[in-house]
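From the pipeline queue, job 12 of 40. The input is one protein chain; the requested action is below.

Action: predict structure.
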Amino acid sequence: MELFNCKLMIMEMGAGGTQDETPPVISSAIEGTQGTNEWYGTDVFYSLTGEDSGGSGIYQILYAVNDSGNNLYEGPVIFNETGIYRINSFARDKNRND
């Protein structure tokens, strides 16, 4: 008996019918009352958006606060405690480019 192994990969195609190999771009915005020396008051909203020019579309946006591990972005992140925060984020498209 012969065995046949096959690996099947299915990818979203761009608008022109080509394979999307372009990583998406992510941008962020901060909403809140800004004081002196680039500090903000409490109740600061941090928003993320992603754009995929490759055509397959945004699959997910992930973020991590102070190296806490990745979280799925589902809406503005609220910071309501005094502190210094380091935020890492990235977008992944439907072809898993990031």
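Job complete. The two ends are 42 Å apart (CA to CA).
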